[in-house]
Each structure stands twice: as structure tokens, then as C-alpha cells.
Known about the structure:
Blueprint: E1 7-11, E2 17-22, E3 42-44, E4 46-48, H1 60-67, H2 72-77, H3 82-91, H4 94-110, E5 113-119, H5 126-141, E6 146-154, H6 159-162, H7 167-185, E7 191-196, H8 203-215, E8 219-224, H9 232-239, E9 243-246, H10 252-261, E10 264-267, H11 269-275, H12 282-287, E11 292-294, H13 308-317, H14 323-329, H15 332-337, E12 355-358, H16 365-368, E13 375-380, E14 383-387
Parallel strand pairs: 4-5, 5-6, 6-7, 7-8, 8-9, 9-10, 10-11
Antiparallel strand pairs: 1-2, 3-12, 12-13, 13-14
Helix pairs in contact: 4-5, 5-7, 7-8, 9-10, 13-14
Bound molecules: zinc ion.
The site of zinc ion has 4 residues, from loops.
Amino acid sequence: VAALQHASVLADDDGWIRWVGPAADAPTVSDGERVDCRGRAVIPGLVDAHTHLVWGGHRRDELELRLRGADYEAIFAAGGGILASVRATRAASDDELHAATRRRLERMRACGTTTCEIKSGYGLDLETELRQLRIVRRLEREDGFQCVATCLAAHAVPAELRDVPQGADRWVAQICEEILPAVVAQDLARWCDVFCDRGAFDPAQSRKILEHARRLGLGVRLHANELGPTGGARLAADLGAASADHLLAIDAEDRAALAAAGVCATLLPGTSLVLGKPWADGRALVDAGVPVVVASDCNPGSCGLESLALVLALACYGNRLTPAEALCAATHNAAASLRLDHLVGRIEPGLRADLVVLDTDDWRDLVAHAGSPLASLVIQGGRIVARGTTHDAAG
Ligand SMILES: [Zn+2]
């Protein structure tokens, strides 16, 4: 992270950064809006590279059960967890799903997130998976959010197939033969993800889906080694996936394989916090030369945190990243893992003018004062899209 002092940023009318440098050298412009940031640090808009933002219903009761000691995997095995959200999402109308997701995105943006990856995976049937992904498109088109859609039909085996012989394999076949081709034909996603873990999909099933997705032109990423050492990280390295996410249960050989293959490691410390799980060893990943990303994992069950600014701080306290590594992980590295680093993630000419003006002169206060409302102005594509309580009207 390179910090400039007394700097100015100039954006054009189309929302692209044209010039960055010392304020004293700034080109003079006759018109346009000026934002006075004196005494305030400015960081790139945050890039949240892992969310499950489109869902119906809620799981607040389950949260209480877990806080009283119930186990996440046991709740899932009993038909709750992801499967409860699938029932509620299938039952929700498009407008209900759209409105709920929009409110979530607005709150995330108020905390500094300007680009957001969103996965499907609460449909687990063709129609609902496509409906979830269409809502992401609608949020981009009608509401102006910057989103990236990922098909995660391989989030779980649907309830209808759980007690059927070879149910999981039948679902894998349906994803490959029916769901992914429809997603691609309708241009509804850029990425395919698989929950490769205990109780979900094994490495062989995950490989089948991801290789098929790649043949169809989708990029691949996966949930790996969250619940156990189940081979997901090694599969990510084998496939040259863009990212392997979670990574609580990995060893030095896994880290070396990820580094050699150039796979990003996406840490989701909010989920460790909420589920009371161990923290992924971010320090060891950085030391092994793996590009590290930090994302919220915002979802209805295992982590509802919407503020990537807060999660960035958790990556310091839990995953043992430095503040600079955590900021880079939630901006440039996150953008790179989504193959968007030519557009967002840095304050640099040619990139989108996505900026967060902080109510402090030192961005490290995002870590020191984690959870405080420090985003005083959020600028997306050169437009102010959120204004914090601390930025006065004149600012
Ligand atoms: Zn996830």
C-alpha cells in the first residue's frame, strides 16, 4: 500500500480516474464537483469477492440455537441451514428477493463496498438458480450496483435428492447438463463455484463441475477446506482456479501448491467469528507467497456481516494480516481474484473512480476503530452514493 500525502484525485464525467498526484500539481478544471477531503484519508472502494447475497427468509432462530451450543453441520444434516434458506428463497417472489438484496447492498455500500461478487446457491433447482442470478443483473441495471455473478448451484445437494440413491451424483449431472448451460446461454454469470467440503461435494464431484464450467467459458473458484482437510485447496491448485476460499484446514504443502499455481486465498474471518471456528492462518499464506483476499461471506446463516471494513479488521486480529495487507486484500487482490483489477481496486488513472473518504486522517483507524462508521463519503463511478453521519453538508 502506497499512501500519498496532500493528494488530489481527478475523475472525468464518465466516472473514470484521470489524474492522481500532489494537490499542488493538480490540473485546473473549470467545472465539475469538488469534494474537499482535507484531513481525511481516501482509500479505494472496497471489493467484496465472496457473498451469498440473494436469499429469502431468515435464520435468526438458528443463530440462537447455535449460540446455545448447537452445531452448524448438525443443523444442516437435520434439514436446516442452507436447506432452510433454499425453501424460503424458492417461496419468495422476484420482487421480494430484489428488495431484500438491494437493502443489503445499500448497507454494504454505506460501509465502503463499491464492487460485490454475489453467488446463487439458495435455489438448487434450475428455475430458482436462474432467478437468483437474474436479480443480480437487475441490481446492476436498475439500481446501479457494481456486481459480479457466480453460479453456486453446487452449494448443497437439494432436499429432493438427499435420500435418493446417487442423489449427489445426479445433482452434479444436472448442474453440468442443464443448469450451467442455461446460465451461460443467458449470460447470467461469469464464475462457477463449488462447495467442496465435508457434507457437500467431494473433490471428484467438484472437479467434474468446475472442468465442465470452464469448457463452457466460466471462470472457476471454490469453497475449500473450511470444515475439514477435504482436498479442496489441492483441487484449486490443480485446476488453476482463480480463488480457493475459507482454507481453515490446510497445511504447508497446500499453501505451497496454491502459491505455485497462483491461486488467490480468500479469507472469510467473519464466518470464523460467527461460527466460533478457528481462524485461517493468513500470516502463513502471505509468507508462502499466496495472494490473499479478504471477503465478507455475507449469507443468511454462517455469517451475516455486511461491512467489509469490519471484516478487514477481523483479518488483522484473527488471520494475523497487517493493516496494509488487509486493505490490499479487500481492494486490489479482491479485484484481481475476480479478474477486475484493470477496472477497480486501486486509486490510479484509468480505473473507475470508486473511493471511500474516511472520517480520519489515517486509514489504519479502520483496524484500530473497527466497526465505527468511518466511511464519511462513498463514491462509485465518480458519484457520491453514500454519505456517512460524520460528513457535514459542506463537505
Ligand atoms: Zn461462501
